[in-house]
Design brief:
The protein has 323 residues and is α/β, with parallel strands linked by helices. The protein has a single domain, classed as Ribonuclease Z/Hydroxyacylglutathione hydrolase-like (Metallo-beta-lactamase, Chain A), CATH 3.60.15.10. The chain is 26% helix and 22% strand. It is built from twelve helices and 16 strands. It has a seven-stranded mixed β-sheet with strand order 4-1-2-3-5-6-9. Strands 10-11-12-13-14 form a five-stranded mixed β-sheet. Strand 12 and strand 13 form a beta hairpin. Helix 11 runs antiparallel to helix 12. The longest helix has 17 residues. The protein is globular and about 50 Å long. This is Metallo-beta-lactamase domain-containing protein. Keywords: Hydrolase, Metal-binding, Zinc. Pfam families: Lactamase_B. Belongs to the metallo-beta-lactamase superfamily. It comes from Actinoallomurus iriomotensis.
């Protein structure tokens, strides 16, 4: 099956949100820290399934979200999110990215929602004609209030969808996962429960070769969960447990590659570039495995030389980068 990464703009995030989970980075710091930003990409994925047809995993953001002011006016997000939090060039909108591959939004036969956060469902309303698959726990929590004020599923982003298909993970165990969901019954697309980042976050295993994690892992370095951890507003125990299950799955499937939505590292960029044709070359696969071996030991502990650190902007601005 061909798998195409779709670059749907980028988002500006505090370094501590990505990497400060073990340093006590808090929700209040998330809202107040305006001096340690990094830009990270937003990726959705197009799967060209041989029998089902084109399928999406997440949808990225929309132009209305990137404009910010009117879209979030009157909600807590108007104040928590910066007006320039999203950057979405015209050539990176969902319709433009699909057109690059010869598809239109109406061609999409199904959408997988890894979780309800805004940078993953912003273009969801383009696909009101298609079923939307997601973890049953995420669907059940859709009206739970974030910060006690706004539903997990922000209504303007999800209002058009009527065919929700919550997934129960009653299928066979796989790696560290006690259950799974073989969505199309052919083993090609298997959903796995990876809660923690959100109540019912789901990862998608494609052809037993690629694991699309959404935000269950921000980058490949987050595999080293005892050394690199994202900030958690809730469910930290489940977050850690989910990553340990992904570690187990990698041991069971040695050729498995992890594709996240926001990996700004050399590893993420190389895999995204390598998949431009829908298939990864043997050379890119060998490079990825060599990179992993240089980054992690057999227990997924990270090489100290590859721990992320914030590098301030050379011009003294608020947006630096991570090394």
């Amino acid at each position: 099956m061909n798998i195409h990464p779709l670059r749907i703009g980028r988002t500006k995030v505090p370094f501590g949100q990505f990497y400060g989970g073990l340093q006590g980075f808090s929700v209040s710091e998330f809202a107040a820290d305006k001096d340690h930003f990094i830009w990270v990409p937003i990726h959705a994925y197009l799967l060209e399934h041989p029998t089902v047809g084109p399928i999406l995993v997440d949808t990225g953001i929309s132009p209305a979200q990137a404009a910010h002011t009117d879209y979030y006016r009157g909600s807590i997000m108007e104040h928590v999110m910066d007006a320039d939090e999203y950057d979405l060039p015209a050539e990176e909108t969902m319709p433009a990215q699909l057109a690059r591959l010869g598809h239109r939004p109406e061609d999409i036969r199904a959408v997988f929602v890894t979780h309800f956060h805004e940078d993953h469902v912003g273009a969801l309303n383009l696909f009101a004609h298609a079923p939307a698959y997601l973890g049953a726990a995420e669907y059940a929590a859709r009206e739970d209030k974030v910060f006690g004020l706004v539903p997990l599923a922000y209504p303007p982003s999800v209002a058009a969808i009527t065919d929700w298909r919550p997934l129960e993970f009653t299928g066979p165990a796989l790696g560290g996962f006690a259950g799974s969901a073989d969505v199309f019954g052919d083993g090609s697309v298997i959903a796995l429960p990876t809660p923690g980042h959100s109540p019912g976050s789901t990862s998608v295993l494609v052809d037993h070769r690629f694991l699309l994690t959404g935000d269950a892992m921000y980058t490949i370095r987050h595999l080293a969960v005892d050394q690199v951890r994202a900030i958690q507003t809730s469910g930290e125990t489940r977050y850690v447990d989910s990553i340990r299950r992904i570690q187990w799955l990698r041991r069971e499937l040695p050729e498995l590659l992890v594709l996240t939505s926001h990996d700004h590292t050399e590893y993420g960029e190389r895999l995204i570039t390598g998949l431009a044709t829908g298939q990864l070359s043997d050379a890119d696969l060998a490079w990825a495995k060599s990179y992993e071996q240089a980054t992690f030991d057999e227990l997924a502990n990270i090489n100290p030389a590859r721990l992320p650190r914030f590098v301030p902007a050379a011009d003294g601005g608020s947006v630096g980068h991570a090394e």
